[in-house]
# Entry
Amino acid sequence: MTLAALPHSSDAPLLFIQWAVGGIVYAASVMFVGVFIASHIVSHWQNQLEGHVTMQLITKQGAKQEQQKKDATEQDKQRILQLVRGTPAIAQAVWLEEEEVIRLLQPWLGSNIDIVQGISLPAVIDVTLKAQHALDPQPLRQTLSDWGYTLLIEEHNRWFSDNFAFLGRLKLFVATMMLLLTAVAALVVFFMVRVGVALHRETIDILCLVGARDAYIRKTLTRRFSFAAFRGGAFASILAALTLVGLGALHEHGLFWFQHAPTTEKQLLWGMMLIIPFIFVGVVALVTTLTTQRVLTRML
# Structure
């Protein structure tokens, strides 16, 4: 009788470990990819919009009727831009044409973008702030109010602070779920090792009687459970990679982050996805070793 009689790849405990670890690795990989992409998208947006504010000019209700009915003339635009650019904290100001404003609204309106046709949209100015300068909008508001406009300022940093808070909570949730999945994997291995040893109790007793050492039996069981976990984890990693590539291929207009991400970020993402199954294989090996040693100690 040899150690080949111990749990092998066709045993129910090893098959259960293989597919359980595969499911856990796939779930962990998908969660990690989601948070990784969300984090880098938000960071990319922040870098693009850092130091930018958007100014909206709305004609006041008390302004002259003829002024309300017509768009700002080129002379009015230049006068307003000159005023805005003259503000000490502002480095650059660009007047957005109506087509650009409509294009900015498209992500929110989608196929209903036609509803803005015929609606008087506010004038929008894209403003770049000088570094280390705080914008005091009160003088601008007062002057533009005298000219018949109400000034609304949208500071992107405030919007991003809310999103970063949400992203932080999302990262905490994923970290908690990763710990929970690790604990689930450890519990599954613990019970499956006990089941595997119980199924082959007689074989192990005979092997011990003919001189097999505990360490040899323990290493054999650990190796076989680890290989089962590796098979499941490898399959799950391939499936997660195909999911990532599939999302990039199916995403509308090819705007999926992964398609246009820098090479270093792609390499980091693939590297982390490659590491995840090995983390769980390590958990399986550790728990198998400890559980087998405990069970063998009680048996003998």
